[in-house]
Design brief:
0% strand
């Protein structure tokens, strides 16, 4: 096989190409403590975990404002937005009594609990506002 400009790849060139295509060493080196070799595949977050992540994120943005904002512009479903509103209300009360750090912890706990309860009860429905 003749490549561009008349250069023929040697065995070493083919080996490198095969290794690159196979994805060998995608990280560029041996596994580190952050990526142990015993792990068969990366963790894919569940729908419940994604719910908690997005609700926590937007709750932090909303906590110090006087409004909740528009759930559609946040990319939230109606169910997630209801969780956010409860989480923010609770965190605002905690912030007054115990400060910002406690309020932040309250947001995370509340989002995880709210999303767990929501998915336990069936989670999002079939409609766009569920």
């Amino acid at each position: 096989m003749v490549m561009r400009h008349g250069v023929r790849p040697g065995v070493g060139g083919w080996l490198v190409l095969v290794l690159l295509v196979a994805g060998c060493g995608a990280g560029g080196g041996p596994p580190t403590a952050a990526e142990p070799s015993a792990s068969p595949s990366p963790h894919s977050p569940s729908a419940e975990e994604l719910c908690a992540t997005v609700v926590t994120y937007w709750s932090r943005k909303v906590l110090d404002s006087h409004t909740y904002g528009d759930y559609q512009s946040m990319g939230l479903s109606n169910g997630q937005y209801e969780i956010l509103r409860q989480v923010v209300d609770d965190a605002r009360a905690v912030k007054k009594r115990q400060g910002a750090a406690a309020a932040d912890e309250s947001l995370g706990r509340g989002a995880r609990r709210g999303c767990a309860d929501w998915y336990r009860a069936g989670g999002p429905g079939k409609g766009p506002w569920s």
